[in-house]
Design goal:
single chain, 390 residues, alpha+beta, Alpha-Beta Plaits, four-stranded antiparallel sheet, peptidase activity, protease, EGY1-like
Amino acid sequence: MRRIFHIEDVTLGSERTPYIVRYRGRLVAPDSATAYDTLSTQLKPLGLTPLFRTEEERHVIYIIRGLPSARPSNPAVNLIMFILTLLSVWFTGGILGSEGELSGSAPQVILQLLRAGWPFALSMMAILAAHEFGHYLMGRHHGVHVTLPYFLPLPFPISPFGTMGAFINMKEVPRNRRILMDIGIAGPLSGLVVAIPVLLIGLSLSRLEPLPAFPQPGVLGQAQLEGNSILYLFLKFLVFGRLLPEPVSYQGLPPLLYWLRYLVTGQPLPYGGLDVVLHPVAWAGWGGLLITALNLIPAGQLDGGHILYTLFGRKRAQALFPIILAVLILMGFIWSGWWLWALLIFFFGRVYAEPLDQITELDGQRRLLGAIMLIIFVLIFTPVPLVLMP
């Protein structure tokens, strides 16, 4: 112990304390991560686990009973949920790809759904799998026990994608912030590496069509407009050479101000303008961006919550929590779906994954990656995901 830690005082635990012994002082080892691994290895045969903490500007080491353990999961559950999600997504893709042209007997309809649905199903499942296996493989790389992905089916029309997404479960606490950051960013980055090419391919298969010229009272949903993010607006411009949905006029506003207002509020509705009718593959790519952005909301156990915690620490993350919640509630007046997200985050977003070693700080490369992920969140966040034109 003294080779890695300068001890200033020692406190023995009791039945009322969760630790056996507490050491306060200062780490003398040059690398805190290596020091933790060394001490952890030495204590493991004794069935003890060290916790590295910082309290009142002093380093603290708690020695607690027990070892990190992970109960084995049943991969059959993962396989069943994957198959159910694949069927749900394939059916959704069949509905989207058939464009109402289904006809004939039941076997013929099923065959039509299979033929029309595979491009969307392949695209959507590839994006989800890339995201979750990014987390999974990075966890395994660092020796953290993580489950295989759990895919979540949600049939059309309850979900416009046929799924609620997917998740993995960390079966044990990561050793330090660096590992938590790596696992947290691996999913969104891997998902985007697939989602952006899928979206570009899908946009190249899509077509431009005029929007309704006027609202029709009593008619809901003449057209459905998918929401815009900064990146999505740029990718449409890259493919079509237009900022879409292209309005008839900017109503006397500077173009930058018009598009800023439209991105944030989805208003004014661009009656008489021009927009892209998304191919199912493009719809999957757009859904991939949306799902990634939702995962990057900086709260709790979401990927963004892990990134926020590792960058700024627990106290700052908790201080930012009510601000994030207030922003979501205010955004709910523009798109009511944010109220549901605010409710979910209120109940489940206040707990952050706290590593065993909280002394080890992020290195410069990981801080840069964390900052890049926050920028990516701003670029792909969609304030108004869907709008129905009356």
